[in-house]
Amino acid sequence: MKIKTLLLAIATMVALPSFAVKGVEDGSKYGTGEDSIRCLENLSLYTNYYKIKDYNAAYDSWKVVFDECPTAAGTNLYSQGAYILAYKLAGEKDQAKRQALFEELMKCYDQRVKYYGTNKKYPESYIRGRQAMDYIKYSADKDYLATVLPWLEQSVNGRGVDADNDVIQKYFELLEYRYQSDKAKYSESFIDSYLKLGDIVDKRIAKADKYKEAYMITRNNLNAIFVNSGVADCATLEGVFSTKVEENKLNDEELEKIINIFDKADCKESEIYFTASRYAHALNPVAKTAVGCARQAFKKEEFANAVKFYNEAIELEQVDSLKYTYAIEKANALYQSKRYSEAKSSALQALSFDSKQGEPYMLLATIYATVDPYPEDPILNKTKFWAAVDKLQTAKSIEPELAEKANTLINSYRKFYPTKEEVFFKPELAPGADFTVGGIINESVRCRD
To answer: ∠217-219-225 over CA atoms, to 5°?
Structure first.
């Protein structure tokens, strides 16, 4: 059908008077007269060659359409043209020819902006992002920062959650490079960009579309770049934000930004982090501000206050992985305050949020080894170590990274098992029998020697 339409268009053009005007000259789609025929013929040739992936053969005809009737094929002329030129660049060894192709590639993007920069689906912000990526890939000039950084910024700012994941990552890579060139000048903007880009990527991941995996990889790469940059060092962050907390103590948005930075950098014992959390919590209580207050109380060994804030954080939080973190931290606070039954409950609460974690079982083992289920019976009291070792075995089976620590505790606890002589007086503890350890442990174990 398309071929018939094209032939009809050519036939109609042939019947026109002999004067000729190119589309680029009169603003029409194909031009007029013989120039319109030339446009349509080359449009047909290049698109057919493109379909069969003969990109070298497609180039000459594409070039005619590109130069003479730049709106004849819509945005396809430019997306396909960029692919054709990139293909030719990849196979070209002569530097002069490579440079000519590169300049043509950049012109392809610029011309697309000229004619289709307001396209709703792929506007200028999208085009500049792709242009920046190709500039970096094919330019002979390796000092390209000043050229491409504005394009990447325009793309990310303009596209938001629709920004391409490779554009987001490359933008942050170059911002990190710029930060390393002048840390004092760019540290704050680099940190701000990390938070902004991370938020964009997190929102895109939350859409759960077919590109989710790609954006998850990008998220991990952003985190790695940030951590490895050196700006995430706690001392560096404290130097940057030492005065900003007081300056913004009534600005909950700025305080939240500071809290997020210190949280991502794992600077959760910094006084700046604590102060920002306290101010922000007074203005607008959310899970992150509550947990910051909890951690400050924990550091001060004000465990009752810490537990109160941890409970608030768990109630306010919506994400189970974060609820897990707050619950296990609360369990540790309860353990430190010798509230062992509540510590056990909190460890189990943490597992309800994430059952694939080994740390709650490690803590349960420690609690079991600490309490005295049978304070009046020293032999039965030793059964707590069987229950503790069972939890350690579970911990390392779920999370093999904990094996070394778990094995050390297992070897230590085994020394306190009931001896054969002691079991002689307690036949209910015969090896192989089932026994329910009492007290707050309240778990069935297999007796052993």
So the answer is: 100
